[in-house]
Amino acid sequence: MAPTESWRADASAPYFFLSYAHAPRNGSDGVDRDMWVHRLFLELCEHINEMTDTVGPPGFMDRRIRAGEVWSEELAHSLARCRVFVPLYSPRFFRSTWCGREWTVFSRRATRHLSGEPGTPSAVVPALWSPVASHQLPQEIGNVQYAHPEMGSRYHDYGLYGLIKLSSYRKDYQRAVLELARRIVNVGNNVLVEPGRRTPLETVPDAFAPPPDARTQKTLRITVAACAYDCLPEGRGRGYYGESPLDWNPFSPDSPAPLARVATEIAERLDYRPEVTEFPHRPGTADTVGDFDGPEVVLLDRWLLRDAEHREQLRRFDKCHRPATGLMVPWNDADPDSSEDVETELADEAAAALPRKLSQSRQASHRAVEGISDHESFGELLPYVMQWAAAQHLRNPPVRRSPDQGTPRFRLRADPDDDARTPVHRPPVEEEDRDDQL
């Protein structure tokens, strides 16, 4: 069997991948706010099954990211092996960092016409979920057609969501879904998309991000300073961790999503463009004082302070003059490893390693740095800390150095002469707390 035929017969590869912006959760009412998208997905799958002889699943729709992992193996495999990428256009879709990254991963896969004709065809078949103004479409994807006459004028006016919600437009909805399925099958039958690599979403750029000069003001960095499997201190269980610090979830099982994912969703709802990174920053990312001068929120796992190397890195980070950095310190009282004595010990370690950052973060919220005990409190406090960091960024604009001045580096390795050479930045005088209850 030829390689192409072998791939197309992959029983685990979905025919299409549905990319959509998950609806934000409003409390714990248990309502599935993506139920209408799921209904569309099931109807598309039914059509694909009838129109093709595919041996794999007709489609893939991620139903677990908002109730589970940041990045699942099933999602990674589906995005790397599907034949057709189906993005559901909506205003929220183009604000979603994760949707933009899914687009990036798929667009990196090579395509060609099965007929052998020249050119580079597209295997992206967009669908309009809710109307999007032309100025909301990122420039990079403006040439990808999503409105087609055969899908009907009401589809263009209302989108699939409007048609599915109005019983009087039921026939228009059925027509639009059938035509969408036909377009998916047409692309799947005529375009070969080579298998891609399973790439973690957090490592790829957002295809919808505006140019850097327009993005700086709205970017908010979320840094996760937490343990991972390869650096757990003695006496610490694995239950709240994963392969990466970004997998840290101190409130499991009450909150099944890692804190990095929760923080990303909250930042997007506040109209920030989150940049999620782990501490210390990976090679190739900003690791100097001058490379990132925007607002930042650090999610601190106190257990990290039991490691001498990380403790020293945090001490050096504390010396950096970053007035727009706020700390969040989750501490789950139900954690079986977190006795009162351990909490006191690690709180003292944090106070010794991060005195400046803890002091300035109390301006945003006392509760945020004293140990956030549950995921509801975390979700309540994080917006205050984000908004405080953004306000501090505006009050303390970065100093622009002349080219011959250079930039003082934030060095992660210990240097015996460091204290003699590093300028001392005095912490700013604390402002009166806005609300002692925060």
Question: What are the defining features of this structure?
Answer:
elongated; FxsC_N; 35% helix; disordered C terminus; Rossmann fold; TIR domain-containing protein; TIR_dom; single chain; FxsC_C; 2 domains
Describe this structure in words.
- The chain is an alpha/beta fold and 438 residues long.
- It folds into two domains: 3-201, 3-Layer(aba) Sandwich (Rossmann fold); 210-421, no CATH class.
- Helix content is 35%, strand content 10%.
- The chain contains 14 helices and ten strands.
- The strands form three sheets. It has a four-stranded parallel sheet with strand order 2-1-3-5, with helices on both faces. A four-stranded parallel sheet has the order 8-7-9-10.
- Helix 2 (35-51) packs across helix 6.
- The radius of gyration is 24 Å and the shape is elongated.
- 38% of the residues are buried.
- The model is unreliable at 1-7, 65-70, 283-290 and 407-437 (pLDDT under 50).
- Residues 16-111 form the TIR domain.
- Residues 412-422 have a biased composition (Basic and acidic residues).
- This is TIR domain-containing protein.
- Residues 394-438 are annotated as: Disordered.
- It comes from Streptomyces lacrimifluminis.
